[in-house]
Write a structure and sequence with these properties.
- This protein is an alpha/beta fold.
- It contains 5 helices and 7 strands, in the order βαβαβααββββα.
- The strands form 3 sheets. The protein has a 3-stranded parallel β-sheet, with no helix packed on it.
- The radius of gyration is 16 Å and the shape is globular.
C-alpha cells in the first residue's frame, strides 16, 4: 500500500494544496496526517473540514491540543477526539514522539503565547520519521520515488 504522510499543515491551505497536487500525481492509496492540523495559517476550519470529508486518518498534534485560533465548535470536538497514535503492524504513526506525552507548559510573554516541549521529543521525532522512511521504503518504494519533502513527509 502506497502511503503519503503529511504533518504540520497549521491551517496553511495554499501550502497543503501544493503538496496535495504532488500526492495526486503519485497515485497513493491513502494519506495519513501526523497532526498539527491547525494554529498558524488562516484556513484552520477549511483544512479540518477537508480531512473529515476525505476520511483522512489523523493523529492529534500538540497544536491540535493547544491552539490559539478560532475554530468552529464541531471542529474543536473533532480535534479533541483524535488519537495520539495509530499502530499498524510494526509502525507507529504519531506526532513528535511515541513516548508518553508530557503536559504542555504555557508561557506568556510580551510577544504572545509560546508552548514549550523538551527538545528530546523533537530529536526522537526526527529519528522516528527516518526509521519509518526506511521501513516504508524497503516495503513499497523505489529510490527515485522519494523526491519531495514539503510541508510534511512524503512517502
Amino acid at each position: 500500500m502506497k502511503t503519503a504522510i503529511v504533518s504540520d499543515i497549521h491551517g496553511n491551505w495554499d501550502g497543503f494544496n501544493t503538496v496535495l497536487e504532488d500526492i495526486k500525481s503519485r497515485q497513493v492509496d491513502r494519506i495519513i496526517c501526523l497532526g498539527d492540523v491547525v494554529d498558524g495559517g488562516e484556513e484552520n476550519d477549511a483544512f479540518v473540514h477537508w480531512l473529515k470529508a476525505n476520511n483522512i486518518t489523523t493523529v492529534r498534534g500538540n497544536h491540535d491540543e493547544n491552539y490559539n485560533c478560532k475554530l468552529e465548535p464541531e471542529n474543536k470536538k473533532w480535534l479533541n477526539q483524535l488519537p495520539q497514535e495509530i499502530v499498524e503492524e510494526s509502525v507507529i504513526f504519531t506526532h513528535i514522539s511515541p513516548r508518553v506525552k508530557q503536559k504542555k507548559l504555557r508561557i506568556t510573554s510580551k510577544r504572545g503565547m509560546y508552548l514549550t516541549k523538551p527538545i528530546t521529543d523533537y530529536v526522537l521525532s526526527a529519528i522516528s520519521i527516518f526509521r519509518l522512511f526506511l521501513v516504508m521504503k524497503a516495503k513499497t518504494l523505489e529510490r527515485q520515488e522519494i523526491t519531495k519533502w514539503t510541508a510534511g513527509v512524503m512517502i
